[in-house]
Amino acid sequence: MLEVEGVSKIYGGERRGFFGRAPQVHALSDVSLSVRRGESFGLVGESGSGKTTLTRCLLRLEEVSAGTIRFDGDDIGRLSAAGLRALRARVGIVFQDPYASLNPRMSIADIVCEPMEIHRARLGLDGRGRRDRAAELLERVGLGPQHLGRFPHEFSGGQRQRIGIARALATGPDFLILDEPTSALDVSVQAQVLNLLHDLQAQLGLTYFFISHDLGVIRYVCDRVALIYRGRLVEVGATEAVFQNPASDYARSLIAAMPDPDPDRSPFGPRFPG
Amino acid sequence: MALLEIRDLHLHMRSFDGEAHVLNGIDLTVDRGEIWGIVGETGCGKSLTGLSVSRLVPTPPARYARGAIRLDGEDLLAADEKRLRALRGRRIGMIFQDPTTNLNPVFRVGEQLLDVALHAGRSDPSLLGLAPGASGRALKRAARELSLAMLDRVGIPNPAARLDDYPHQFSGGMKQRVLIAMALIGRPDLLIADEPTTALDVSVQAQILRLIHELVREHQLGVMFITHNLGVVAQLCSHVAVMYAGNVVEAGPVRDVLKSPRHPYTNALLAALPTAGTARGALQGLAGTVPSLLTPPPGCRFFNRCPRGEPGCTAATPPLVGPEGGHRVACPVVLR
């Protein structure tokens, strides 16, 4: 469904002062991966490894410096303005911080309807229809039509993330980019959101592109996983295969660094024998 | 005598909507060489417990309604500000979550470290290897030596050169190391670490945990390690206290609590954590929400979300029951 081929993104080299130029930053170097329809694809990397740059390139919020990104066979670098709009209706995105990604001055109805307004030509819904669909989406994510008139501050973090998911689904996308959707949430709430995502995928046949630095979550959610380090892909494969037989040193060290909730597997040995 | 004793601590916080009962009878004992993980979800009072020990909760708006905090027998709730200033940084070291906001961006790292070393050295010159009444110059030189030694100890390469760098020239993990050095420079007995690795990548987190573990071994520190990450607790801590809505609901040696959890909340937390064997869709969230602390329900505060709740649970706050220093649970239903 999504094919990324040899994508590089180089920032910088901009003028600095009169003669100087800033050093270039190779945010992505020769990244290739493909995401199959209906699967959950995980992207794991540390801060600064290029995860977000890659997602920005997928939505063509950034132009790639080299390589191509194909979505359903179409090279997104060559899309017309109308084609790009259509792409962005098919690709939804859920952001990391549910406190920052919802406008505090907009009601929940406005937040969920906004994407439908932008894509109204494609969706063909009038104001009434949009509001009905918003109510339906809220129900799908475990909220209800009674929440339409409320504002973000009235909701907890988990509920806000549900609203973010409803908004991402508003245009009826088949591909969802989930950029650390649970890292701002408590574990019990995280579990609810992960289960919701799982149910939605089963009901709507969505494809997920799941970004996280939490390997436990990735292992739970994803069919296949890619590890990115300093802008390069170091490993791609089926999740269990990568976790059980990591091929690269980086994958091995990352998996070893993941804190295991079993006290018997602590690297510091048994602290209280007996 | 235990290093730190918190007994039946009640903290009320004034707000526009009334007084919130944010800590509702905390009981905790931390001894030298023990690393206590304090876990719980947002708003359960784990950070306020840590801040209360260093008396950094402003009163008012907060008010200690009942209870005691004792450091080596000395009542910290009765101590005046002068005494507390002498304790902070000397007997009690602190590390916080975000290493970026805890260093002043306009001063060199060395200066900030030196400040702490000098403060500690003035109150106790022997810390710097000096006799009482040493000259200011000697004090400064010794403080610089100590700062260098500490930076080296926390694993900062080429510390002499880095002393003159500014915080922005350090990475997140390196900044956290500087802050650990700062917290330990006064040779404290008690270290309060409030989510010290939450803002860091896992590989850096692993290094910081290793460092804390080594330092505890070396100096026989007692540690309160506040976190919401059960994985980190399982790896690093010797003991754990699970908090919910201002109460410690389960406490004890880490292996006992995490391997055979008894309180329904601890069970729920562990069930919500995805691990290697969890089938997709099988993760169990916890329905419902934390009760309002302004008008807390009577009895057990977990009652409204508890799968094992009984009518009797709303009678009184359940006390922690179990052997002193052993596995203790605050739930009469599972104890029966």
TrEMBL record, chain A:
It holds the Pfam family ABC_tran. Coiled coil: none annotated. Residues 2-255 form the ABC transporter domain. One of its GO terms (biological process) is transmembrane transport. Gene3D superfamilies: P-loop containing nucleotide triphosphate hydrolases. It comes from the Bacteria. InterPro entries: AAA+_ATPase, ABC_transp_ATP-bind, ABC_transporter-like_ATP-bd, ABC_transporter-like_CS, P-loop_NTPase. GO terms for molecular function: ATP binding; ATP hydrolysis activity. Keywords: ATP-binding, Nucleotide-binding, Transport. Belongs to the ABC transporter superfamily. This is ABC transporter domain-containing protein. It comes from Teichococcus deserti. The lineage of its organism: Bacteria, Pseudomonadati, Pseudomonadota, Alphaproteobacteria, Acetobacterales.
From TrEMBL, chain B:
Residues 4-270 form the ABC transporter domain. GO terms for cellular component: plasma membrane. Pfam families: ABC_tran, oligo_HPY. One of its GO terms (biological process) is peptide transport. Keywords: ATP-binding, Cell membrane, Membrane, Nucleotide-binding, Transport. It is found in: Cell inner membrane. GO terms for molecular function: ATP binding; ATP hydrolysis activity. It is a peripheral membrane protein. The keyword Cell membrane applies. SUPFAM superfamilies: P-loop containing nucleoside triphosphate hydrolases. PANTHER family: DIPEPTIDE TRANSPORT ATP-BINDING PROTEIN DPPD (PTHR43297:SF2), OLIGOPEPTIDE TRANSPORT ATP-BINDING PROTEIN APPD (PTHR43297). Belongs to the ABC transporter superfamily. This is ABC transporter ATP-binding protein.
